[in-house]
Amino acid sequence: MKNDLSKAERTRQFIIETTAGIFNTKGYAGTSLSDLTEATGLTKGSIYGNFESKEEVALACFDYNLLKINRAVQQRLDQETSFHKKLLVYVQIYHSFTGSPFPEGGCPILNTAIDADDTNNLLKDKAAKAILAWKKRLIDLLRGGIAAGEFKTDVAPEQTALSMIALIEGGIMIAKVTNDPTSLVKILKTVELLITQIKT
């Protein structure tokens, strides 16, 4: 597939793949042009010959990092047959936010949301859209589970979805800032309990 790409497209892809972990670790403001040239071995002119700005590289890197996680989640979701087990996939995937399928630096949604909250509206919008898309996927699973008789009929899908996201992302933030991965493990147990409690 990569051979079908033009030289310019291959160069763009190389820049994205090589710098995605840097942006996800250091943030947009913390990543310098010299970080990009050092990582890629390309000149400033070569990078700006393929991207209009550092911001454009950062936006492409966010999409790349998010796609990696979404593909891994979808692959796991496709393997499960019940809505209950599909929801538990999110607990399992986020159990180790520093390993596969997460890019270097961990969860790009959390990192970008914190990094770009007051500094970069385009990146903030990317993070917001990622959260809203995640919420929609969870709501669809919850509604599907209610319709299939797996979940209680009085379950509030939007509230449950938002609570799951808040617990998972909050757990990652606490684990990162305190350098204590066991905090995330405990919080994910709460997510698991939440999913178990809505079962019929």
TrEMBL record:
Keyword line: DNA-binding, Transcription, Transcription regulation
Domain of life per record: Bacteria
DNA-binding region(s) in UniProt: 32-51
Pfam families in alphabetical order: TetR_C_13, TetR_N
GO molecular function, one term: DNA binding
Classification via InterPro entries: Homeodomain-like_sf, HTH_TetR, Tet_transcr_reg_TetR-rel_C_sf, TetR_C
Domain HTH tetR-type, chain residue ranges per copy: 9-69
Record-given protein name: TetR family transcriptional regulator
Native organism: Spirosoma arboris
